[in-house]
Design a protein that fits this description.
The structure is a homodimer of 581-residue chains. Chain A has 25 helices and 17 strands. Chain A is α+β, with helices and mostly antiparallel strands.
């Protein structure tokens, strides 16, 4: 099966939504982020309302998705973002990407807008696509929704769905993807993609890949050999082979806290007293004690297995292992040092369909505004339950950190382009500040993970407290990331490919073997650069300027302990990131 | 007394706020909007947080304020706007402008930010300025506040103050000025200036001009003669001499409804069944019946007297005569056809310190979101009382129409640069659409009142339903308005000066006589153009582009009854407004 079809769904067509299947046309050869950003850039009017009929939601498996390549199941979801007003690609793990790839679909494009508030489910099978109204699904949490879908369609389908937050069209609403246990735990969290899906009247896309197989590479032997070397490279790297499997992404809590770059109490300092209590080792130990899992893949074909299963004290499932950024946003950033509280928040976010990062940032801002005390976990859970109930307070928080700050009159709001920063203070890791400032996505650590070289010693080393070299580093990482996001590869493979030339070549050979076409290091870079150019151009046409490529002013003025530094990369240097792409 | 001093107050200085008096320096010769926009443009970093220490609040009487010139008491208030993120000049009538002028102050500049949440009052007298903490004033409505100030400082002082909305730093918070009866009824409503005053910890500025006199013109005879001719011109014009005195600004309800350009039910149509019930004639009749006043000046020196006094059915004072835009925003735009309801809303807005227009727009959006039914006046009052209480819902609404739309997930939000449109649909009055789109202030009918020529036949005539000529019209009016706002003249003098060459020359001669310097028609235009350039430049440096000079897309797509037209001025023509200044 080649991935050569696009499903185009018009939710605003006549009396009922329409579906057409079409060839790839100008989108041939694209996948993942290259696909979503190309479609948004080509088809979405930059000044349209993100919740209006002219916006489109594009769901695209990566170029390697649906193959036997390890780590190749990231799903890209794109649109004009209700959170940032710019282009958005948010990606997620889970099962859907591999399944869509095996079904031969390079993209699902959802456009138009229903005339009434009917809610629809979309079923994608080898036999075709059907769209059915189903108002019984209204306002279901993702967990209850998936249970209902399971009853109707069995245990082998995957779901791409929204919770109440998406139906309410809140700007921090995520889109959930089910994991191998058919739980809605993997989210395209950032940028409010869930609100766009909600505005289209789509509750869930059910994917049934019964009787499909891995996509066949053109050069099977080359592909197979490349996959072997790629696997070895990932397993041999200390981070992807040891740290992440053992402690998950939360292994970073200790590292960033030690580095004094772990933002605490709404970005007021870089060290958190409770770090050890909520860090990776404590989390893994607790999971194991309670018969959960400390090592678990979020999708089939994963060999890193940085996820896990978090049970309560009675051994009952609560949520998947909360990611480092979730533990931070709702832990250290809110002064909360209790893993059960953080896990419950993670569960609620997954169930309501919300970005754990923008929500944690919003919670800390609410605490700064006096709505709860820093460190009060019960209050935090209560606040987040308001979102599920759709109260006014819940709607404020669910609109994300920027709106929460505006409505509550708080000045210190750590966002760029309306999107909240992640678990790395840009004063303690100056390189990530460059990425936060300049990524077309808004503040986004994954868009160019300078932490790797600033803190982890991956891809070389660079002093995290100095501005020197950070612009070049961020640019190179943003280009590489845009390529990886297009291939459908998990970002963690970057650790291996940055440090191991064989692994990098093997990754290229996976594409070579699959497509039979030459995919060189230059092609890899050109792919990422072309994606960034399209994204940047869309944002330009949407009214963004260099003034949007700036951190909030207080990061340049407010001294950050323990290093007592400010963000020092100059504005004119930030403008060099894209001037040289 | 010449107006040659600036009071500079640093609310963030050391242990207590500091006051310095300084000369005009580079700001010599400026007043009103020319003063506020020059100071903002020169001294405020364009990317600063509007609620942060780097923003400044500038309060400036007009160039003619404090003189015996009729209609010369408009006060300009400027800052970086928390509502739009751009530069803001919002102006108000009432007593303070004349009094500040007589005291010789060309501007009060409030900068910095207190370190704690102490609330201050500032007293400006002929003997100097004193700043006193007074936390007993916290969260007082403007009416109660003014009562307290009256007890302490007597019945002759004027107040510039904020209500709870400003203290809560809500983006639709206004700054109130007291009228001749010492009631807080005249507001610098637009753009959230009240939130900036709140962020500076200033509750009220009390102005005591005891024993001061009119500013003396250099050429007294010329000035006196000019004032006479100017007065005659205003009294001779049918709008300023008859319509406005008899029925107030609300005379426009019938006119705009008849023209089919009166936005109803959140901008869904141009005619309102209840127009006659809430129009100018009905309002004046009711006011007279209840022993209020149908004709009343908002400040001493006013000869138009377009205001009035609105009493309840028992003859007790409720509020000043609600303005046309208030009656529309909270009447026709919300489907409400009851003057008592509208007057109560007006009273609440004045008391809480809120922009009646952005709030009415927010109410209609809340109705579109299902929070109340269109036409339900009791529900509207209940919603607005939430703002006074500071509930979450109240904070959403008090943040203005744009944020309300975002938080409630509503797509049809009639704002430009985050500020709500006024009582003229840009499809029914294409000329005002050009002003909404391109004014540096955000959607603002007063910034270039094309309605005059499109609908009222003032300054010539132009078909309101066609795009032809609208760009030139809006540009010319924006320039003239920026000059009038700088002179401190009430905008309604524009009716006379547009139609009567003698009145126009008399207005110039008022300045000639006052200053002894030549003030020609070219100087008048150059003044306005220079103000707009500074404002535009500030916005550019704050990240605004031509993409911000656009109406929301739906005005170009959604057909507007009864004329069944869309907004037809082309984007490239909108860009000609400022390309030619």
């Amino acid at each position: 099966m080649t991935m050569d079809k696009i499903i185009r769904i018009n939710m605003g067509a006549g009396k009922a939504p329409s579906v057409t299947e079409e060839g790839l046309g100008n989108y041939a050869g694209l996948g993942g982020r290259a696909m979503t950003s190309s479609v948004v850039s080509t088809e979405v009017p930059p000044l349209c309302h993100p919740l209006g009929e002219d916006n489109k939601l594009i769901i695209a498996p990566g170029i390697l998705s649906g193959t036997a390549a390890v780590m190749s199941g990231r799903l890209s979801i794109g649109c004009k973002s209700p959170l940032t007003g710019g282009i958005k690609e948010s990606n997620a793990g889970g099962q859907p990407s591999q399944m869509l790839g095996r079904l031969g679909y390079a993209a699902i494009i959802i456009e138009g807008k229903p005339k009434d508030d009917t809610l629809y489910k979309i079923l994608v099978t080898p036999g075709g696509v059907t769209i059915t109204p189903d108002n019984k699904l209204k306002m279901l949490g993702n967990y209850d929704l998936v249970e209902k879908i399971k009853e109707e369609f069995g245990e082998k389908v995957a779901c791409i769905s929204i919770g109440p937050a998406g139906e309410m069209k809140l700007s921090a609403a995520s889109i959930a993807c089910t994991d191998p246990e058919q739980r809605p735990t993997r989210h395209a969290g950032r940028g409010g993609t869930g609100a766009v899906m909600g505005s289209k009247g789509v509750k869930v896309i059910i994917i049934d890949d019964t009787d499909t197989r891995f996509r066949s590479p053109i050069d099977f032997e080359k592909f197979k050999e490349a996959n072997k070397i790629f696997t070895q490279g990932i397993k041999a790297h200390p981070i992807t082979g040891e740290g992440l499997p053992a402690f998950g992404t939360n292994v970073l809590t200790d590292v960033l806290n030690e580095a004094g770059a772990y933002p605490t109490l709404n970005f007021k300092g870089g060290r958190f007293d409770g770090a050890a209590i909520i860090g990776g080792e404590a989390l893994a130990t607790l999971e194991t004690q309670r018969n959960g899992k400390a090592t678990h893949g979020c999708q089939k074909g994963c060999i890193i297995k940085c996820s896990g299963i978090f049970n309560d004290k009675d051994g009952n499932y609560v949520t998947k292992q909360p990611e480092y950024e979730t533990v931070w946003a709702n832990g250290g950033n809110c002064g909360i040092e209790d893993l059960d509280t953080i896990a419950m928040l993670d569960r609620l976010y997954d169930d309501f369909g919300l970005d754990t990062m923008d929500m944690g940032a919003a919670l800390a801002i609410a605490m700064d505004a006096g709505l709860a005390k820093f460190g009060d976990g019960e209050a935090a859970i209560k606040l987040i339950k308001e979102v599920g109930k759709g109260t006014s307070l819940g709607r404020i928080l669910g609109s994300g950190a920027a709106v929460t700050g505006k409505v509550l009159g708080v000045e210190r709001v750590p966002v760029v382009k309306g999107q909240a920063m992640a678990a790395y203070d840009p004063r303690g890791v100056q390189g990530i500040g460059v990425t936060y400032a300049t990524s077309p996505m808004g503040a986004d650590h994954t868009a160019g993970y300078s932490v790797a070289t600033n803190i982890l010693g991956v891809g070389g080393t660079l002093d995290p407290l100095l501005p020197d070299g950070q612009v070049d580093l961020s640019r190179n990482l943003q280009i590489a990331t845009a390529s990886l996001d297009s291939l459908g590869l998990c970002l963690f493979v970057a650790m291996a490919i940055l440090d191991n030339a064989d692994a990098f070549q093997a990754m290229l050979d996976l594409v070579n073997g699959l497509t039979g076409k030459e995919f060189t290091p230059d092609n890899f870079n050109a792919l990422g650069a072309s994606v960034l150019k399209k994204e940047r151009d869309f944002n330009y046409r949407a009214g963004f300027t260099s003034k949007d490529d700036r951190l909030p002013e207080y990061f340049k003025k407010e001294i950050f302990p323990p290093h007592n530094v400010v963000f020092m990369v100059k504005d004119e240097d930030l403008d060099q990131v894209f001037d040289k792409i």
